[in-house]
Design a protein that fits this description.
Elements lengths: L1 H5 L5 E8 L3 E12 L5 E2 L6 E2 L4 H15 L26 H5 L22 H11 L14 H15 L3 H10 L25 E2 L4 E2 L7 H5 L10 E2 L1 H15 L7 H8 L33 E5 L3 E6 L4 E7 L11 H17 L5
Antiparallel strand pairs: 1-2, 1-10, 2-3, 4-7, 5-6, 8-9, 9-10
Helix pairs in contact: 2-5, 2-6, 8-9
Length: 353
């Protein structure tokens, strides 16, 4: 981690490691929360923009609770909630396919470029563009990581729950797990504590701190199914621990459903995604070379990641601000697997038997 700061992989980061029965064996902060206009040291209590960790920790967890309550079913067709999906190939798309990134949707589109930032109906307009987005593949045939699919899931959650995504997650997930510093800043919640800066953004004309980095989520007011969540490493660990507890039948979600959501899908062949979570890809995983095939995790664009090895009871949470001051810094792609390999060797030992 010190080498990561010194070599410019990221200005700062917090690393939390847990092993065997939820014992936290490492939790330290390195580097800086902000470099410009002044250097501000980072602490273990620094809040980070989690970026796409929003997908499993908020959206997928909310989906799971709504499935448990009977309000949603994974095999529900999307057209049941989104009228734009009643025609053509879109009629075949299911909630499970949105969760597993196999719906046929493209990965991303710059919807924010078509939205006036002061527009009161910006969120609805982005939703509308996402729902109208044409498929680029037959549903269920290809795996392509898609922000657009999770934007749509956010809307489906709000329709099913009859409340906003941030409100549902706060009261049904975060507060129940005592994660009081986990929130969507766009929800208007007062921010308490230091926040790691992200990009010096030419579009917004400032260094971003305390508002979501993702441009589409920002245009939507900071609350979306694909990005917008902020938290600390400790509270991310609380949320991840509940997934582990749920697998063991002591969490918020039933064991059967939790296991289903973190297990790699057999269709489409070759994809690494489970349902809302990812699993180690063969040969080139950000989790490195040693995490078992039963592991699950996720990455965030701002430089965040979660990896959980269910077999070895190893949890690794890495939160960084690698996009500060520019998103063009991609050194973390090589850093992540090297870090996870080192952690595995030090904590578990090289023998995987």
């Amino acid at each position: 981690m010190e080498e990561g700061v010194a070599s410019g992989v990221f200005p700062g980061g917090v690393l939390l490691i847990s092993h065997k029965g939820g014992r936290v064996c490492f939790h330290k902060a390195f580097g800086f929360a902000e470099l410009t206009p002044i250097k501000i040291p980072l602490t273990i209590n620094t809040l980070f923009d989690l970026a796409s960790l929003t997908k499993p920790l908020a959206t997928t967890a909310a989906m799971a609770l709504l499935v448990e309550s009977g309000m949603l079913r994974l095999k529900n067709p999307v057209f049941k909630f989104i009228p734009e999906y009643k025609e053509g190939e879109k009629k075949r798309v299911t909630l499970a396919q949105l969760l597993s990134h196999s719906s046929g949707l493209p990965d991303w589109k710059p919807y924010y470029e078509k939205i006036a930032r002061s527009s009161p109906d910006a969120k609805q307009r982005v939703y509308q563009m996402a729902c109208n987005e044409p498929l680029i593949q037959q549903p269920g045939t290809h795996s392509l990581y898609s922000d657009i699919g999770f934007m749509i899931l956010g809307e489906i959650i709000e329709k099913a729950a009859s409340e906003t995504l941030d409100h549902f997650c706060k009261h049904n997930i975060f507060l129940k797990l005592n994660a009081k510093k986990t929130f969507f800043p766009g929800s208007g919640q007062k921010i308490m504590g230091r926040i790691a800066a992200t990009e010096d953004c030419p579009w917004r004309g400032k260094v971003i701190r305390g508002e979501v980095h993702d441009d589409n989520a920002y245009a939507m007011g900071g609350v979306s199914g694909h990005a917008g969540l902020f938290s600390t490493a400790k509270e991310v660990y609380l949320l991840v621990t509940d997934w582990v507890d749920s697998i063991n039948n002591t969490g918020l979600i039933s064991s059967a459903l939790a296991k289903r959501l973190v297990t790699r899908r057999s269709v489409p062949k070759g994809g690494s995604f489970a349902l809302g979570w990812d699993t180690p890809s063969l040969g080139n995983s950000s989790s490195g070379h040693f995490f078992s095939p039963q592991s699950f995790g996720h990455l965030g664009y701002t430089g965040t990641s979660i990896w959980v090895d269910r077999v070895k009871e190893l949890v690794v949470i890495l939160l960084t601000n690698r996009v500060h001051p520019t998103r063009k810094n991609n050194q973390i792609k090589a850093f992540r697997p090297a870090l996870h390999d080192l952690i595995y060797k030090e904590v578990i030992g090289i023998d995987r038997a």
